[in-house]
Amino acid sequence: MKPYIICHMLSSVDGRTDGDALAGVTNEDEYEATSAQFESNAWLCGRTTMQEILGNDEPFASASNIPAGSESVHVARLAESYAVCVDTHGKLRWTNGNLRGDHLICLLSEQAPSDYLGMLKENGVSYIVAGASSVNLIRAMDLLGERFGIRTLLIEGGGHINGAFLQAGLIDEVSLLIAPGIDGRHDVAATFDGMNPPNNVAVALRLKSVEQRANDTLWIRYDVL
Length: 225
Ligand SMILES: NC(=O)c1ccc[n+]([C@@H]2O[C@H](COP(=O)([O-])OP(=O)(O)OC[C@H]3O[C@@H](n4cnc5c(N)ncnc54)[C@H](OP(=O)(O)O)[C@@H]3O)[C@@H](O)[C@H]2O)c1
What we know:
Largest sheet: 11 strands, mixed
CATH topology of the largest domain: Dihydrofolate Reductase, subunit A
CATH class of the largest domain: Alpha Beta
Bound molecules: NADP nicotinamide-adenine-dinucleotide phosphate
Number of strands: 11
Structural class: alpha/beta
Helix content: 10-25%
C-alpha cells in the first residue's frame, strides 16, 4: 500500500539546503515548477521545516501529559491533495486542517499526548499514530496509502527527515535541483543528513535524467537502487 516516494530538493553544489542562501544564486520558482511535473497528490516535511511554514515556535503544552499509547488513525476528511507533517511528540500547534490548499495529516509517535490528538481532531486535522518512541515511517506510509489513497508522495525536506526516509528504504526516486552556488557552512543541513549507512557505504543511485533549467540550475533525477 506504500505510495511511490520521490524526494524533491533544492541544494547548493556542496549539498547544503538553506533556501535563503540559495535564493541569491537561483530562481526558487524552479523548485515549484519541477515539482508540478510529478503526478503526486501529497507532500511531506519534517517538524523543523513545518515549524518554519507554520511560523509559530510555541510548542503545544499538554494539560494531562498522558501519551497516546497505541496506534490509531483519524481521517478528518478525504481530499484531492495532502500536506503531511512528521512530528514525533506532537509539538506543532495547528489551528486548522488546511495547509497551502492541501488537507493536513500529522504523523505522530505513541509518545504524543492524547490531548494533542484531541486538539487536532477539534481543528479538523487528520493524524496517524504509528511507532512507540519515534514515528514508524514504514507503517505510516502504508496507512497513508491505505486510509487516504495517497499514491505518489513528494518528500520535501529538510535533510534529516529525508535521511530517515532513505535509511528506512522508503525512497524510490531522488529529484535534485542543483543551484549554481556553494554554501560551505558545516552547520547547514545537507540534502540527506544524520544517516548511519551500513559499513559507511553510500546508497547507490541510477541516473534517470538531467535537464538544464533557468539560471544554470540543473535538475537531476535518480532511481534509488
Ligand atoms: N532546499 C530545500 O529544498 C529545502 C526543503 C525543505 C527544508 N529546507 C530547509 O531545511 C531546514 C530544516 O532541515 P532539518 O534537517 O534541520 O529538519 P527537518 O528534516 O525539517 O525536520 C527534522 C525533524 O523532524 C522530526 N522527525 C520525526 N521523525 C524523524 C526521523 N525518523 N528522523 C529525523 N527526524 C525526524 C524531528 O523532530 P521531532 O523529534 O520533534 O519530531 C527532527 O528534528 C530548514 O532550514 C528548511 O528551510 C530546505
